Amino acid sequence: MASAPKRFKAAVESGAQENSSADPLSAFLAWCGRAGVELNPKVRLSREGAVAGYGMLAAEELQAGEVLFTIPRTALLSQHTTSIHALLQEAQESLQSQSGWVPLLLALLHEYTASSSHWQPYFSLWQDFRSLDHPMFWPQEERTRLLQGTGIPEAVDKDLANIWLEYNSIILPFMETHPDIFDPKLHTLELYKELVAFVMAYSFQEPLEEEEEDEKGPNPPMMVPVADILNHVANHNANLEYSPHCLRMVTTQPVRKGQEIFNTYGQMANWQLLHMYGFAEPYPGNSHDTADIQMVTLRRAALQRAKSEAQQQLVSEQWDFLCQLEMVGEEGAFVLGWDEVLTEEELSMTLKVLCMSEEEFKEYKEQDGWEDDSDEEENSTLSNEALSRLKTPCKKLLYDSVLLTLESYGADLKAEQDLLNNKEAYEKLSRREQQALHVRYGQKRILHQLLELVQ
Predict the structure, then answer these.
(1) Under DSSP, is residue 249 helix (H, G, I), strand (E, B) or coil?
(2) Considering the entire predicted model, what is its pTM?
């Protein structure tokens, strides 16, 4: 059973001055004390000793199952707790969007710029958002040069298009109906973009209960003070727990004195971490890293292999059939992990169909893809060992697809490896160049591992 934390002491009880510009952390801790946050005296918040920005460190040794802090739901910043929650509730139909973030973003636009906001000590930890270094803030030339082939430039382009659309079609009309609260000259598109990045990097979404998963969409994001100070690693040592009245951060393993305490943002690949949070884990730290092969790349490899117009026509028909089965799509990707293929059903079916002869495909179509696959289903997990046992035509198609994927990057694996191994050269790289290198290198290592498996 988790042991309970004690209430804030010393700094809060002695009446810490809320001079947020001089000491934003003291002001924030004082606010936490008033808001009912309970912090374990065995931990401290600090910039010193943290891997990035602020972090939480163990001031004393911690055991697994200890509560690091408890935060009441009234201290969370969400569309339900903001001072403009009534306006957001009244306009909820007109605030619906693809992201589902608009109500929280409007709350943040207001609370961040209102000098009397209850949340000012919280925002003082981020006096401006220029420290956020998501790829969406990089010049397009730099983003393309450093991240070509990783999937991040394409994801950023979609983000920027959606941000522009949401701001102009939803945010601006709402602000214009409430000129006493919002001013487009203050609440600009640029500030909105920065707040989107803030929500990307620091918000939490409460998981649905199992019985709710089929009945409703995901819960809206919310800001969780203190919890968002913890940094992320794949091998984390703490986890956020949800209960009806409060949220608690609990250790999942013993933590030594002086060691940083890490939460997890989920099982995220390096490209997702850089895209959403502005950082990547150095190799080989991220056990959840992945590489993608675009689905259309398998089609391209199959078409290149086709030696006649009839064979190319067969590949086109096979692809259309896979689309009808919803196994592939023009923008989809097959996802490869370190130990197995994460989109195993889609890749297995695609390899199987694209490697069929005309006669085999005709028979398979007549069965609507439902022929007896019992033997294959027993071994459907595409582990590394299973990949090495694929039939020769499937291996060849996969091999060619990996080669085509590797061509999309700007440099080869050896060049990246030499750079990582040369400490002096690596330290001369900018932070962006280092983060991009970790993303590219992890992806290429996974792809080269697959090449070896299917050679």
Answers:
(1) strand
(2) 0.88
